[in-house]
Amino acid sequence: MSETVTRRGAVFYGEEGVAGFTHRAFTKSMGFDDEDLARPVIGICNTFSELNNCHQNFRELAAAVKRGVWQAGGFPLEFPTISLGEIFLSPSSMIQRNLAAMDTEEMIRAQPLDAVVLLASCDKTTPAALMGAISADVPAIMLSGGPMLDGHFRGQTLGACTDCRRMTAEHAAGVLDDETYRDVESYVARSAGHCMVMGTASTMNSLVEALGMGLPGNAAIPAVDSRRMRLAEAVGRRVVSLAKEDLRPSQILTPEAFENALTLLSALGGSTNAIVHLAAIAGRAGVELPLSKLDEISRRTPVLANLKPIGTYQMEALFYAGGIPALMNELLPLLHGSAITVTGKTIEENVRGAVIDDPDVIRSRTSPVRDEGGLAVLTGNLAPEGAIIKHAAASPGLMQHRGRAVVFSGLEDLRSRINDDDLDVEPSDVLVLQNVGPVGGPGMPEVGNFPLPKKILQTGVRDMIRISDARMSGTAYGTIVLHVAPEAAMGGALALVQDGDEIELDVPNRTLTLHVDEAELERRRRRWSPPAPYYTRGYGKLFLDQVESAPRGCDFGFLRGSDPVKVGIQAKF
Fold first, then answer.
1. Which of 13, 281, 464, 549 is paired with 254 by a 20 to 30 Å CA distance?
2. Residue 416, class by beta-carbon neighbours within 10 Å (0-12 exposed, 13-18 middle, 19+ buried)?
3. For residues 508 and 355, what is the distance between their CA atoms, to the nearest angstrom?
4. Which backbone phi and psi does 227 adopt, to 5 degrees?
5. Residues facing residue 486 across a β-bridge
6. Are 65 and 235 a contacting pair, CB within 8 Å?
7. Sign of CA dihedral 218, 138, 132, 45
8. What's this model's pTM, rounded to 2 decimal places?
9. Which residues pair with 465 in a beta bridge?
10. Would you say 100 and 132 are in contact if contact means Cβ atoms under 8 Å apart?
11. pLDDT digits (tens, 9 = 90+) for 10-43
């Protein structure tokens, strides 16, 4: 640490009078001594929970981090924050992301920490931890729990939960019998770790490396591989140096770092959810990250990662092929290589020399999976503030399509009618789901990849254009337009769509058009009224009152920006 900077831990334990006496005495009650109290205090923010399957290995990882901290001369103290298990939470884990970010920020802010290790892995825990740490702006480093091992079933390599969806569609179509469908549950998720396809968890933990907030290798080492434990020890050693150097997130998370993240996101064909999370993280860092920047970068960046749901392989193969460092080394001409990272070195120094060991898993720029990035930003009168499509995971024949709208007013309407034999629907139609955005959802649930009508599946059709203001799991696929803004519950044009309207999707030209004249839309707008709020009290009401739109990251306006913690004692006895 710089000679001109005083450690928070040193002030906390070194204060005179009853305050310092009490701080030392109560810490000694846990078995620590004066030698321990003189070390840099390293917080280990542990989001372990038995209601979060992705974080099963976090107790062991925390212990490994502590070993590294002790080795480097630090004083590790573990503390819990909210854990968001994607599978267990309803109606949407997105509602609690901001709450988890507040928890992380306030625990870092309130406690005498000189630096912090953020243990997070599942979809919302990673962005929440980064958001909180940025706003507190104490030296911080991220450690993922790692992806699951591949699933295997009757000669097939399975990925959670891309193949959960594929198998369910086949079962609904009558191709897969009940017994086989149930049997595959035991094969698709066979180890600790987060989803092993390039879903949201894998995407966000990969972007941690591009943002400069994690050590090289953070993303792809499998959760149960011993190298994950060794990485955790290395994180523990490095975080002590971060405390001494006083290298803070605000110095790392620059506009260039976010452009690097968008470049890697494009090359991965990563999750659409990452767009929302990066916007929120950038908002905490004081960086503007408009959707236009994503589209600009995506158009110039080829997809190089041959990973499900748009490719063939999964995270285990990516690790063996060289991981994110090898992919970023191939991307260096498109990156800001001079961007600083938590290693104290630049992106280029971190990845230069990383080798691609399997050129089919990680492609070269001259032999890409796709010539441009996997995501596109759409605008038009149906989405004046933007919408997103993961066109790399969509049907090529639907990239320019005009069809008749079949409208569902919300999830209950969808559930009650989607498999009705009398539903008036054809494969060429456009399915529209309203009122599932940040406010309408609530929390923008992952229902954008809602299923096709059973009567359509039974004809052999497996994809139709689906449009909503919801999100989609990063493990999902299909011709699915998401994040339509403004959302329906706030009076956006999506709320005005009616059965039979003509909708045109044109991905090459980046447009989404509702072919209804403005006079008719204005008549509909005058008749429209918002849906009743889902929450009327508590945190849910706070969420509905304060959440911003998807293009702004669905954060709370009052949480944007940072307020770096001050060194010193906040209160005296």
1. 549
2. exposed
3. 34
4. -65, -25
5. none
6. yes
7. positive
8. 0.95
9. 430
10. yes
11. 999 999 999 999 999 999 999 999 999 999 999 9
Q: Distance between CA atoms of 515 and 497, rounded to whole angstroms?
A: 10
Q: Terminus-to-terminus CA distance in the chain, angstroms?
A: 29
| CA-closest candidate to residue 386, choices 374, 397, 394, 377 | 377
| Token reading at 395 | 């049907």
Q: What is the pLDDT of residues 408-462, one digit of tens each?
A: 999 999 999 999 999 999 999 999 999 999 999 999 999 999 999 999 999 999 9
Whole-number Cα distances in Å, 322 to 253, 369, 523 = 25, 17, 57
DSSP per-residue codes, 403-427 = EEEEEE-SHHHHHHHTT-TT----T
- Identity at 311, one-letter amino acid code: G
Cβ pair 239, 66 in contact under 8 A: no
What backbone phi and psi angles, to 5 degrees, belong to 432? -125, 130
Helix (H) or strand (E) holding 554: none
Q: Are 323 and 217 in contact (CB under 8 A)?
A: yes
Tokens 């080795």 locate to 71
Closest Cα partner for 431 from 446, 458, 413?
A: 413
List C-alpha distances in Å: 359 to 131, 150, 324, 356, 373.
35, 19, 13, 6, 18
Torsion of CA 203, 356, 164, 479, to 10 degrees: 70
Residue 204 contacts residue 127 (beta carbons within 8 Å): yes
Whole-angstrom Cα distance, residue 141 to residue 214?
6
Alpha-carbon span 288 to 290, nearest angstrom: 6
> Is residue 152 helix, strand or coil?
strand
Q: Cα–Cα distance between 66 and 504 in angstroms, integer?
A: 55
Structure token pair of residue 205: 């933990």
Which helix H or strand E contains 10, and what residues bound it? helix 8-14
